[in-house]
Write a structure and sequence with these properties.
It is a single chain. By secondary structure, the chain is an alpha+beta fold. It contains eight helices and eight strands; from the N terminus they run H-E-E-E-E-E-E-E-H-H-H-H-E-H-H-H. The strands form three sheets. A three-stranded antiparallel β-sheet has the order 3-2-5, with helices on one face. A hairpin with a 5-residue loop joins strand 6 and strand 7. Helix 3 packs across helix 5. The chain is elongated, with a radius of gyration of 77 Å.
Length: 425
């Protein structure tokens, strides 16, 4: 029947329609599901507002929503800036900046809007690599923006500060770029200045000449200081070695002295021990002798008392005899003294008598006795010569010469006697 056949045909088409719908839904789901790589940003935007953003996330795109996908890797951009210093000297600065999109979703959306980051969801012929964020025009614009910031920062700096302290210059430029990065939504990873120099090569040579001379002076001074330090180290080393040798010698001598002292101490201890033994032996002998003496005293006590009494009797008798002898000697000495005294008195009296007799003699008697004494003395003198020889001077004979000598001596003694008499008067 025609109706039954048409219904059967429609019933056969239902599974095909269902399958077609399911296939379309699968295709739509696959197209709406988007997953980012682990190093990629994924932004979901509706009506110019950010709905969702993250790195390496996956989501379903609804109708009317825009997806933006771009790399989250660090980017490198070189720049070259021609600037003027405070003295209006042209300066050339070369460097590079490492940067990346900020990890904060709002700032990442700001970087996508303002930097012109290429969306990998669409085909871009200006990208050389999918890991790049900017196309060539945007890259050049970013370089120009960095160069402008460097120029504005260097206007207030002196040339010496620019050339001498590149670390401070780098920090200053990085601080200035911090405001730019906040406004554009990217982070500065690292800023490096590869070269900072005056644009005029002759000025650079003149400045480098002074710097080179200063460097030479500094190098010379450093070499001299190094030489002095080496000499000082040598002196210190020699002093230290001498001190160590002296210390070692002192330690060796100290150890030897200690060894000698130990040996002497041991020897002294041995001698002390021997002395103690000897003392003990002597004490034993003394005790034995005392014991023997006590025993002997007990046996010979009476005999000793008798001998002692006899000795005392002998001493008393000897003392009496010595007293008698001493008394006899004193009496004999007193007699001799008395005899000597009497003899001295008799001699004095005899001398006084002779002096008185001489004073009573006349002058003629005195001269006669004096002449006789002179003659006797001359005769005695002549007799004492064994082989007498007489030498005369002149025509006188020996006898007449002798007579003249006697008369001369008589006259001399006569004058001396007269002078003595005159003094007595």
């Amino acid at each position: 029947m025609p109706g039954f056949e048409e219904g059967s045909r429609w019933m056969a088409m239902v599974p095909a329609a269902i399958a077609l719908v399911v296939l379309v839904m699968i295709i739509l789901l696959r197209r709406s599901f988007v997953a980012a790589e682990p190093d990629e940003w994924l932004l979901r935007i509706r009506n110019g507002r950010l709905l969702n953003a993250g790195i390496g996330i996956s989501l379903f795109r609804k109708p009317g929503e825009v997806l933006a996908r771009f790399s989250s890797t660090i980017q490198r951009v070189k720049f070259c800036a021609d600037a003027l210093s405070r003295e209006h000297v042209p300066v050339k600065v070369d460097g590079f900046l490492l940067w990346s999109v900020s990890p904060e979703p709002e700032r990442a959306f700001r970087a996508f809007n303002r930097l012109g980051i290429a969306n990998l969801e669409r085909a871009h012929h200006g990208l050389r690599n999918a890991k790049h964020l900017l196309t060539s025009p945007q890259h050049h614009a970013f370089q120009a923006l960095l160069a402008a910031e460097v120029q504005h920062h260097m206007v207030g700096l002196k040339l010496d500060d620019i050339l001498a302290d590149q670390d401070s210059l780098t920090l200053g430029i990085a601080a200035r770029l911090k405001a730019l990065s906040d406004s554009l939504g990217f982070d500065i990873v690292q800023l490096e200045l590869s070269q900072v120099r005056p644009a005029d090569e002759s000025l650079l040579r003149e400045m480098s000449a002074a710097s080179q001379e200063a460097v030479r002076k500094e190098a010379t001074r450093a070499r001299m200081e190094a030489t002095e330090q080496i000499k000082q180290l040598e002196i210190e080393s020699a002093t230290r070695v001498a001190a160590q040798e002296s210390r070692a010698r002192f330690d060796r001598e100290l150890s030897e002295s200690r060894a000698r002292l130990d040996a002497e101490r041991e020897q002294a201890e041995l001698q002390a021990a021997a002395a103690e033994l000897e003392k003990a032996r002597l004490q034993a002998e003394r005790d034995l002798a005392l014991a023997r003496l006590e025993a002997g005293r007990a046996v010979d006590g009476r005999q000793s008392e008798i001998e002692h009494e006899q000795a005392l009797h002998k001493e008393q008798r000897a003392a009496s005899l010595a007293a008698a002898v001493l008394q006899r000697e004193e009496m004999s000495f007193a007699a001799r003294i008395d005899q000597t005294h009497r003899q001295a008195i008799a001699d004095r009296d005899a001398m006084l008598e002779r002096v008185s007799a001489e004073e009573r003699k006349s002058q003629a008697v005195r001269e006669h006795e004096l002449a006789r004494q002179v003659t006797d003395r001359v005769a005695d003198a002549m007799a004492s010569f064994h082989e007498p020889q007489w030498i005369t001077i002149g025509s006188e004979s020996p006898t007449s010469a002798m007579a003249g000598m006697v008369l001369g001596m008589k006259e001399i003694f006569g004058r001396s006697g007269q002078q003595r008499d005159a003094r007595q008067v």
